[in-house]
Write a structure and sequence with these properties.
Pathway: Glycan biosynthesis; sucrose metabolism. Keywords: Membrane, Sugar transport, Symport, Transmembrane, Transmembrane helix, Transport. It is a multi-pass membrane protein. This protein folds into two domains: 81 residues, no CATH class; 222 residues, Growth Hormone, Chain: A (Up-down Bundle), CATH 1.20.1250.20. 75% of the residues lie in helices and 0% in strands. The two termini are 37 Å apart. The protein is mostly helical. Helix 1 runs antiparallel to helix 7.
Length: 318
């Protein structure tokens, strides 16, 4: 994921695709439009290649052949039915207190992440570079968006480095504690974004570009957020799998339940962040303030409520 994100965000930060794919420039599509169109062509190519690889690599049997094989072996059809929604929700009553805490921390953590994931490049173009899309100042906005893509690329580099160190961090301090500390880092980063936004509004010269120190500070914040993002991508899944394993419910079910704790906050943020920002006069700062509060709550709960369990030391092979 880190390597793919680096390449993808590097694609978004590069402004010369229209020169490479010159056919994308038309009378109805200027350089910015052509850059976006070129990125879509690259998307289509890589999605096609990866789809073909995933479909052709897995040697799977059609469902009809699996059912025929089960019938020949004497396995009843009733035992091979797929689980449905009521069976998924019916497993909730078997969850322990720790599993519910993990789901709660996951929901709060993603309630902190989604405002950033939705508005990160918009924040750079609107709040840092002072531009507006499709209005006067759109050039500043486009430059800011590309600079935001550069920040996301740096974030992905930090994400990859953190992923390599993940096992050692969790073994030393415990997965729950590491997760909680990562949420504290999120809080500090979101608060730093609010501070940078305020300072930039005070110093920004209308029609110009932000000070170099402001841009560097924004890129540093983007990069630091790669640390908690790497932890968010891995630790919750490991924790919920570990605590559900003893219940015998299956790893696939545990992933489905955890994804519910991610999707529900996403719907809430997607529907509420726009009206919430408009309530306070526009801009992205109100959504980032909510993200900081949610991340702080998630961090405190993770540190205090999730049991500290270090990874067992490997036994020597004799």
């Amino acid at each position: 994921m880190a390597v793919g994100n680096v390449l993808g965000f590097a694609t978004g930060s590069f402004s010369g695709w229209y020169k490479i794919f010159s056919f994308t420039v038309t009378s109805a599509c200027d350089a910015d439009c052509a850059n976006l169109k070129s990125a879509f062509f690259l998307d289509i190519f890589f999605i096609t290649v990866t789809t073909y690889a995933s479909v052709s690599a897995a040697q799977e049997l059609p469902l009809s052949e699996m059912q025929s094989a089960s019938a020949e072996e004497g396995i009843g059809q009733s035992n091979s039915q797929e689980a449905f929604m009521w069976e998924l929700f019916g497993t909730f009553r078997y969850f322990s207190r720790t599993v519910w805490i993990i789901l709660l921390v996951t929901a709060l953590t993603w309630m902190g992440w989604f405002p950033f994931l939705l508005f990160d490049t918009d924040w750079m173009g609107r709040e840092i570079y002072g531009g507006k899309p499709n209005e006067l100042g759109w050039q500043n906005y486009n430059i800011g968006v590309r600079m935001g893509a550069l920040g996301l690329m740096l974030q992905s580099v930090v994400l990859g480095v953190t992923s390599v160190l993940m096992e050692k961090l969790c073994s030393k301090w415990g997965a729950g504690f590491v997760w909680g500390i990562s949420n504290v880092v999120m809080v500090m980063s979101f608060l730093a974004m609010l501070i940078v936004t305020y300072v930039n509004k005070v110093d920004f010269i209308s029609g110009g570009f932000p000070r170099e120190g402001i841009v560097v500070a924004a890129l540093v914040i983007f990069s630091i957020l790669g640390i908690p993002l790497a932890i968010t991508y891995s630790v919750p899944y490991a924790l919920v799998s570990t605590h559900i394993e003893s219940l015998g419910l299956g790893q696939g079910l545990s992933m489905g339940v955890l994804n519910l704790a991610i999707v529900i906050p996403q719907v809430i943020v997607s529907l509420g962040s726009g009206p919430w920002d408009q309530l306070f006069g526009g801009g992205n700062s109100p959504a980032f303030a909510v993200a900081a509060v949610a991340s702080f709550a998630a961090g405190i709960i993770a540190i205090l409520a999730i049991p500290r369990s270090n990874a067992p030391k490997p036994r020597a092979i004799i």
